[in-house]
Amino acid sequence: IVAAVDIWAQGPAALPPPQQPRTPVLPVEGERNVLITSALPYVNNVPHLGNIIGCVLSADTFARYCRLRNWNTLFVCGTDEYGTATETRALEEGVSPQELCDRYHTVHADVYAWFGISFDHFGRTTTPQQTRIAQDIFQRLLVRGFLLQDTLEQLRCESCGRYLADRFVEGTCPFCGYAEARGDQCDKCGKLINAVELKNPQCKLCRGTPVVTPTQHLFLDLPKLEGRLEAWLERTLAVGDWTANARHITRTWLRDGLKPRCITRDLTWGTPVPLDGFRDKVFYVWFDAPIGYLSITANYTEQWERWWKNPQQ
Questions:
Q1: Same domain for 59 and 131?
Q2: What is the CATH number of the domain that holds 296?
Q3: In what residue span(s) does the Methionyl/Leucyl tRNA synthetase domain sit (predicted)?
Q4: CATH code of residue 175
């Protein structure tokens, strides 16, 4: 406190000169390098104040603090654009998913610029870099034996001639009886739902009655990673600043045992699966979207791996 008072009394002249911005911002050996991201806002609507407070404002505040400390700081974000919510919204508006994303990406960028959010780069997930990096990660998982193939029972609408991804289905919640539950979650009781569990299911596109049909999908073999993950958690929970909520949820997942997680969907809007027998499918958005942080950085600089594969700096 005494030192802070002394610096304050000396005024701005005692401060170190501000760091000149670099383009692009890259890690520098011997300096403190800080990479900041905020949750990628979903792009199928106009952002509101809650999106800014919940997604980007805290990260922006921290980025400004880091720059004031003269730390070498990169702050990236962008719109999350794949998935069923975009495809359903595009159908409602009578446009293609790409047209919808192009429109709302511009709206998002303009809103954050108006608020003065200090992104070094604001990108998006519908880019060739996203496809390249996501497919590369998929191929690495495949070669290392961390993927498996299995059959899922899925609702298919014969009238539309398509399998119905979770948000293309509505019906009665099997837990609380809410009549407008989605095929992935009930907005009334909050429980996660498998679409085939819905009572009185309806196709959201034509309001027809879908039928349960088997279809092949790819899964991330999480049980094979469980031991390695537990060992890593023991180390990081001991030294990291995990919140009590994060610790509880993570331990609950492990306590119940990890299950294989489906990473493909019967959709047209998404990153294509580069494997014979699955080329008519795309990656599930929760496999694909987190990779957006890497691809957005890669669209900012070809040297993106210096940020994402460089723990020493």
A1: yes
A2: 3.40.50.620
A3: 34-311
A4: 2.170.220.10
Rounded Cα distance, 269 and 244, in Å: 37
Note whether 116 and 197 are same-domain residues.
no
173: containing domain: 154-213
Whether residues 28 and 92 fall in one domain: yes
94, 130: one domain = yes
**Whether residue 65 is found in the same domain as residue 118:** yes
Q: How many distinct structural domains can be found in the chain?
A: 2
Q: What is the DSSP track for the chain?
A: -HHHHHHHHH-GGGSPPPPPPPSS----TTS-EEEEE-PPPBSSS---HHHIIIIIIHHHHHHHHHHHTT-EEEEEEEEB--SHHHHHHHHHHTS-HHHHHHHHHHHHHHHHHHTT---SEEEES-SHHHHHHHHHHHHHHHHTT-EEEEEEEEEEETTTTEE--GGGEEEE-TTT--TTEESSB-TTT--B--GGG-EEEEETTT----EEEEEEEEEE-HHHHHHHHHHHHHHHHHHS---HHHHHHHHHHHHT----EE-EES-SSSPBP-STT-TT-EE-HHHHGGGHHHHHHHHH-TTTHHHHS-TT-
